[in-house]
Design brief:
- The complex is a heterodimer of chains A (about 100) and B (about 220).
- Chain A contains two helices and no strands.
- By secondary structure, chain A is mostly helical.
- The radius of gyration of chain A is 30 Å and the shape is rod-shaped.
- By secondary structure, chain B is an all-alpha fold.
- Chain B is about 55% helix and about 0% strand.
- Chain B has helices at about 5-30, 40-65, 70-75, 80-85, 95-100, 110-115, 120-140, 160-165, 170-180, 180-185, 190-195.
- In chain B, α1 (about 5-30) packs antiparallel against α2.
- The longest helix of chain B has 30 residues, at about 40-65.
- Chain B is elongated, with a radius of gyration of 23 Å.
- The chains are: A mainly alpha (about 100), B mainly alpha (about 220).
Chain lengths: ~100, ~220
Protein backbone atom coordinates (compact mmCIF):
# COMPACT_ATOMS: atom_id res chain seq x y z
CA UNK A 1 0.00 0.00 0.00
CA UNK A 2 1.35 3.39 -0.98
CA UNK A 3 1.81 5.93 1.74
CA UNK A 4 -0.19 9.06 0.90
CA UNK A 5 2.10 11.94 0.16
CA UNK A 6 1.61 15.40 1.53
CA UNK A 7 0.74 16.67 -1.92
CA UNK A 8 -2.03 14.08 -2.35
CA UNK A 9 -3.49 14.95 1.05
CA UNK A 10 -3.52 18.65 0.23
CA UNK A 11 -5.11 17.89 -3.15
CA UNK A 12 -7.98 15.98 -1.54
CA UNK A 13 -8.34 18.69 1.10
CA UNK A 14 -8.73 21.35 -1.60
CA UNK A 15 -11.33 19.27 -3.47
CA UNK A 16 -13.26 18.61 -0.24
CA UNK A 17 -13.25 22.26 0.77
CA UNK A 18 -14.48 23.34 -2.65
CA UNK A 19 -17.37 20.87 -2.49
CA UNK A 20 -18.27 22.10 1.01
CA UNK A 21 -18.12 25.74 -0.09
CA UNK A 22 -20.43 25.03 -3.03
CA UNK A 23 -22.91 23.38 -0.63
CA UNK A 24 -22.82 26.25 1.86
CA UNK A 25 -22.94 28.94 -0.81
CA UNK A 26 -25.91 27.26 -2.49
CA UNK A 27 -27.72 27.18 0.84
CA UNK A 28 -27.34 30.92 1.25
CA UNK A 29 -28.60 31.61 -2.28
CA UNK A 30 -31.37 28.97 -2.23
CA UNK A 31 -32.31 28.14 1.38
CA UNK A 32 -34.45 25.05 0.85
CA UNK A 33 -34.91 22.97 4.04
CA UNK A 34 -33.26 19.80 2.70
CA UNK A 35 -30.32 21.68 1.22
CA UNK A 36 -29.95 23.61 4.47
CA UNK A 37 -29.78 20.43 6.54
CA UNK A 38 -27.26 18.87 4.14
CA UNK A 39 -25.07 21.98 4.14
CA UNK A 40 -25.17 22.35 7.92
CA UNK A 41 -24.29 18.70 8.54
CA UNK A 42 -22.58 17.01 5.58
CA UNK A 43 -21.10 20.22 4.17
CA UNK A 44 -19.53 21.27 7.44
CA UNK A 45 -18.35 17.70 8.08
CA UNK A 46 -16.57 17.67 4.72
CA UNK A 47 -15.01 21.09 5.45
CA UNK A 48 -13.71 19.94 8.84
CA UNK A 49 -12.32 16.71 7.35
CA UNK A 50 -10.64 18.71 4.60
CA UNK A 51 -8.98 21.03 7.09
CA UNK A 52 -7.76 18.01 9.07
CA UNK A 53 -6.36 16.47 5.86
CA UNK A 54 -4.60 19.73 5.01
CA UNK A 55 -3.02 20.00 8.46
CA UNK A 56 -1.94 16.36 8.22
CA UNK A 57 -0.44 17.06 4.81
CA UNK A 58 1.48 20.04 6.13
CA UNK A 59 2.73 18.01 9.10
CA UNK A 60 3.87 15.25 6.74
CA UNK A 61 5.55 17.80 4.53
CA UNK A 62 7.40 19.34 7.45
CA UNK A 63 8.45 15.88 8.63
CA UNK A 64 9.91 15.01 5.24
CA UNK A 65 11.32 18.50 4.77
CA UNK A 66 9.31 18.82 1.59
CA UNK A 67 11.48 16.19 -0.11
CA UNK A 68 8.44 14.60 -1.77
CA UNK A 69 8.05 17.59 -4.04
CA UNK A 70 11.33 19.32 -4.50
CA UNK A 71 13.79 16.98 -6.22
CA UNK A 72 16.97 16.63 -4.28
CA UNK A 73 19.95 18.02 -6.12
CA UNK A 74 23.46 16.81 -5.50
CA UNK A 75 25.74 19.61 -4.39
CA UNK A 76 28.09 20.74 -7.10
CA UNK A 77 31.54 19.16 -6.77
CA UNK A 78 34.35 21.66 -6.85
CA UNK A 79 36.75 20.94 -9.70
CA UNK A 80 39.83 22.20 -7.96
CA UNK A 81 40.29 21.79 -4.28
CA UNK A 82 40.75 25.01 -2.53
CA UNK A 83 44.36 25.76 -1.70
CA UNK A 84 45.15 25.13 1.90
CA UNK A 85 46.87 28.07 3.36
CA UNK A 86 49.59 27.37 5.79
CA UNK A 87 48.95 28.93 9.13
CA UNK A 88 50.91 32.04 9.73
CA UNK A 89 53.55 31.76 12.40
CA UNK A 90 52.26 32.92 15.67
CA UNK A 91 54.41 35.41 17.37
CA UNK A 92 54.58 34.84 20.97
CA UNK A 93 54.04 38.02 22.81
CA UNK A 94 53.64 38.67 26.40
CA UNK A 95 54.72 40.88 29.17
CA UNK A 96 58.47 41.44 29.23
CA UNK A 97 60.16 39.22 31.69
CA UNK A 98 62.10 41.03 34.28
CA UNK B 1 -26.37 46.40 -6.39
CA UNK B 2 -28.93 45.29 -3.79
CA UNK B 3 -28.82 47.20 -0.52
CA UNK B 4 -28.25 45.54 2.82
CA UNK B 5 -31.17 46.09 5.20
CA UNK B 6 -30.50 43.67 8.04
CA UNK B 7 -27.78 41.87 9.93
CA UNK B 8 -28.91 38.62 8.33
CA UNK B 9 -28.27 40.03 4.85
CA UNK B 10 -24.87 41.35 5.92
CA UNK B 11 -23.91 37.92 7.24
CA UNK B 12 -25.10 36.33 4.00
CA UNK B 13 -22.91 38.69 1.96
CA UNK B 14 -19.88 37.97 4.18
CA UNK B 15 -20.49 34.22 3.93
CA UNK B 16 -20.83 34.33 0.16
CA UNK B 17 -17.73 36.51 -0.25
CA UNK B 18 -15.64 34.16 1.89
CA UNK B 19 -16.99 31.12 0.03
CA UNK B 20 -16.01 32.69 -3.30
CA UNK B 21 -12.52 33.56 -1.99
CA UNK B 22 -12.07 30.02 -0.72
CA UNK B 23 -13.16 28.61 -4.09
CA UNK B 24 -10.76 30.95 -5.91
CA UNK B 25 -7.83 29.83 -3.77
CA UNK B 26 -8.78 26.19 -4.32
CA UNK B 27 -9.02 26.72 -8.08
CA UNK B 28 -5.67 28.53 -8.08
CA UNK B 29 -4.04 25.57 -6.34
CA UNK B 30 -5.61 22.99 -8.66
CA UNK B 31 -4.59 24.90 -11.78
CA UNK B 32 -1.10 25.99 -10.79
CA UNK B 33 -0.13 23.06 -8.54
CA UNK B 34 2.61 25.07 -6.82
CA UNK B 35 5.22 23.62 -4.49
CA UNK B 36 4.23 23.49 -0.85
CA UNK B 37 6.37 26.39 0.17
CA UNK B 38 5.52 28.89 2.86
CA UNK B 39 3.47 31.14 0.57
CA UNK B 40 1.38 28.22 -0.72
CA UNK B 41 0.79 26.90 2.78
CA UNK B 42 -0.31 30.33 3.97
CA UNK B 43 -2.68 30.75 1.03
CA UNK B 44 -4.14 27.30 1.59
CA UNK B 45 -4.54 27.97 5.29
CA UNK B 46 -6.69 30.95 4.32
CA UNK B 47 -8.61 29.02 1.68
CA UNK B 48 -9.08 25.80 3.63
CA UNK B 49 -9.18 27.08 7.19
CA UNK B 50 -9.94 30.74 7.79
CA UNK B 51 -12.47 31.47 5.03
CA UNK B 52 -14.46 28.24 5.48
CA UNK B 53 -14.60 28.96 9.22
CA UNK B 54 -16.06 32.41 8.53
CA UNK B 55 -18.51 30.89 6.01
CA UNK B 56 -19.53 28.32 8.59
CA UNK B 57 -20.10 30.84 11.37
CA UNK B 58 -21.84 33.56 9.39
CA UNK B 59 -23.70 31.08 7.20
CA UNK B 60 -25.03 29.21 10.22
CA UNK B 61 -26.31 32.37 11.86
CA UNK B 62 -27.85 33.68 8.64
CA UNK B 63 -29.42 30.30 7.88
CA UNK B 64 -30.78 29.97 11.41
CA UNK B 65 -32.32 33.43 11.12
CA UNK B 66 -33.89 32.44 7.82
CA UNK B 67 -35.39 29.27 9.32
CA UNK B 68 -37.45 31.50 11.64
CA UNK B 69 -39.25 33.17 8.75
CA UNK B 70 -42.65 32.34 7.30
CA UNK B 71 -41.39 31.72 3.72
CA UNK B 72 -39.10 29.02 5.09
CA UNK B 73 -41.99 27.33 6.94
CA UNK B 74 -44.04 27.50 3.77
CA UNK B 75 -41.31 26.11 1.53
CA UNK B 76 -42.72 22.58 1.92
CA UNK B 77 -45.80 22.33 -0.31
CA UNK B 78 -48.02 20.82 2.42
CA UNK B 79 -47.77 24.15 4.25
CA UNK B 80 -49.13 26.07 1.26
CA UNK B 81 -52.69 26.52 2.61
CA UNK B 82 -51.36 27.67 6.00
CA UNK B 83 -49.05 30.16 4.32
CA UNK B 84 -51.72 31.50 1.95
CA UNK B 85 -54.13 32.04 4.81
CA UNK B 86 -51.53 33.71 7.01
CA UNK B 87 -50.62 36.12 4.20
CA UNK B 88 -54.21 36.81 3.12
CA UNK B 89 -55.04 40.45 4.06
CA UNK B 90 -58.78 39.63 4.12
CA UNK B 91 -58.54 36.58 6.36
CA UNK B 92 -59.68 36.87 9.97
CA UNK B 93 -57.99 33.71 11.22
CA UNK B 94 -55.66 33.98 14.20
CA UNK B 95 -52.70 33.14 12.00
CA UNK B 96 -53.54 35.96 9.57
CA UNK B 97 -54.32 38.49 12.31
CA UNK B 98 -51.02 37.80 14.02
CA UNK B 99 -49.06 37.79 10.76
CA UNK B 100 -50.39 41.29 10.04
CA UNK B 101 -49.05 42.46 13.39
CA UNK B 102 -45.73 44.16 12.76
CA UNK B 103 -44.30 42.74 15.99
CA UNK B 104 -44.65 39.24 14.54
CA UNK B 105 -43.88 40.21 10.98
CA UNK B 106 -42.19 37.57 8.91
CA UNK B 107 -41.60 35.28 11.88
CA UNK B 108 -45.23 34.72 12.85
CA UNK B 109 -45.07 30.90 12.57
CA UNK B 110 -42.03 30.64 14.79
CA UNK B 111 -43.24 33.23 17.31
CA UNK B 112 -46.40 31.27 18.08
CA UNK B 113 -45.11 27.71 17.66
CA UNK B 114 -41.68 27.95 19.28
CA UNK B 115 -41.27 26.50 22.74
CA UNK B 116 -40.67 29.21 25.31
CA UNK B 117 -38.65 27.15 27.78
CA UNK B 118 -34.90 27.42 28.28
CA UNK B 119 -33.96 25.16 25.35
CA UNK B 120 -37.01 26.16 23.32
CA UNK B 121 -35.07 27.06 20.19
CA UNK B 122 -33.26 23.71 20.24
CA UNK B 123 -36.39 21.59 20.77
CA UNK B 124 -38.23 23.59 18.10
CA UNK B 125 -35.46 22.93 15.62
CA UNK B 126 -35.46 19.23 16.59
CA UNK B 127 -39.14 19.14 15.74
CA UNK B 128 -38.26 20.86 12.47
CA UNK B 129 -35.95 17.96 11.64
CA UNK B 130 -38.85 15.62 12.40
CA UNK B 131 -41.02 17.67 10.05
CA UNK B 132 -38.46 17.30 7.28
CA UNK B 133 -38.26 13.53 7.78
CA UNK B 134 -42.05 13.20 7.74
CA UNK B 135 -42.23 15.41 4.67
CA UNK B 136 -39.72 13.32 2.75
CA UNK B 137 -41.20 9.97 3.77
CA UNK B 138 -44.96 10.65 3.79
CA UNK B 139 -45.77 13.78 1.80
CA UNK B 140 -43.31 13.81 -1.08
CA UNK B 141 -45.78 12.34 -3.58
CA UNK B 142 -48.91 14.11 -2.40
CA UNK B 143 -51.05 16.74 -4.15
CA UNK B 144 -50.22 20.42 -4.55
CA UNK B 145 -51.39 21.19 -1.00
CA UNK B 146 -50.60 17.83 0.54
CA UNK B 147 -53.84 16.14 -0.50
CA UNK B 148 -53.63 12.38 -0.18
CA UNK B 149 -51.16 12.51 2.68
CA UNK B 150 -51.95 11.84 6.33
CA UNK B 151 -53.64 14.72 8.22
CA UNK B 152 -51.20 17.19 9.72
CA UNK B 153 -51.49 17.48 13.48
CA UNK B 154 -49.64 19.40 16.14
CA UNK B 155 -47.22 17.35 18.30
CA UNK B 156 -48.59 18.51 21.62
CA UNK B 157 -51.53 20.69 22.68
CA UNK B 158 -50.95 24.37 21.95
CA UNK B 159 -50.10 25.96 25.30
CA UNK B 160 -51.74 29.10 26.60
CA UNK B 161 -48.27 30.24 27.58
CA UNK B 162 -47.54 31.02 23.94
CA UNK B 163 -50.52 33.42 23.85
CA UNK B 164 -49.76 34.87 27.27
CA UNK B 165 -46.32 36.01 26.11
CA UNK B 166 -48.16 39.00 24.64
CA UNK B 167 -51.70 38.82 26.03
CA UNK B 168 -51.33 39.59 29.71
CA UNK B 169 -53.94 37.89 31.89
CA UNK B 170 -53.68 40.72 34.41
CA UNK B 171 -54.66 43.53 32.05
CA UNK B 172 -57.93 45.26 32.87
CA UNK B 173 -59.48 44.63 29.44
CA UNK B 174 -58.53 40.97 29.58
CA UNK B 175 -60.08 40.52 33.01
CA UNK B 176 -63.28 42.20 31.87
CA UNK B 177 -63.64 39.91 28.87
CA UNK B 178 -62.62 36.61 30.44
CA UNK B 179 -64.28 37.02 33.83
CA UNK B 180 -64.24 33.86 35.91
CA UNK B 181 -62.15 31.81 33.46
CA UNK B 182 -58.90 33.61 34.15
CA UNK B 183 -57.56 31.11 36.69
CA UNK B 184 -58.49 28.19 34.45
CA UNK B 185 -56.73 29.86 31.54
CA UNK B 186 -53.63 30.50 33.63
CA UNK B 187 -53.53 26.88 34.79
CA UNK B 188 -54.11 25.62 31.22
CA UNK B 189 -57.27 23.73 32.19
CA UNK B 190 -59.05 25.86 29.58
CA UNK B 191 -57.18 26.44 26.34
CA UNK B 192 -57.29 29.77 24.51
CA UNK B 193 -57.90 28.05 21.17
CA UNK B 194 -60.92 26.22 22.57
CA UNK B 195 -62.82 29.50 22.16
CA UNK B 196 -60.62 31.34 19.65
CA UNK B 197 -60.72 28.34 17.36
CA UNK B 198 -60.30 29.82 13.89
CA UNK B 199 -56.55 29.36 13.86
CA UNK B 200 -55.76 27.78 10.50
CA UNK B 201 -59.05 27.48 8.61
CA UNK B 202 -57.44 26.02 5.48
CA UNK B 203 -55.53 23.35 7.43
CA UNK B 204 -55.54 19.90 5.88
CA UNK B 205 -57.29 18.49 8.95
CA UNK B 206 -60.19 20.93 8.51
CA UNK B 207 -60.93 20.15 4.90
CA UNK B 208 -63.69 17.72 3.81
CA UNK B 209 -62.67 14.10 4.12
CA UNK B 210 -60.05 14.66 6.82
CA UNK B 211 -59.94 12.31 9.77
CA UNK B 212 -61.78 13.57 12.83
CA UNK B 213 -59.03 12.86 15.35
CA UNK B 214 -56.68 15.35 13.72
CA UNK B 215 -56.08 18.49 15.74
CA UNK B 216 -56.07 21.94 14.07
Amino acid sequence: MRTPTAKALVFYAVIGTMVAMVFMGATIIYPHPLLLVIAMSVGQGIAIMSLALYLLGVALDLQTQGGAYIPYEEPAVAEEPAAVEEPAPVEKSGPPKE
Amino acid sequence: MPEIHSTEQLLQVIALACAVLSLLIGAWYLVRRPHLNQVTKSMLLLGLGVFPLIVSLTGNIASFQYTLTRPFCGSCHVMGPYLRDAEDPKSNSLAALHSRNHKFGETSCYTCHADYDMFGAVTTKQNGMKHLFMYLTQYSGTGPDGEGGPPIHIYKPFKNGACMQCHSTTAKGYLEKHGDNVEEIRTESVRCIDCHDVVHPLALSRRPGAKKEAAP
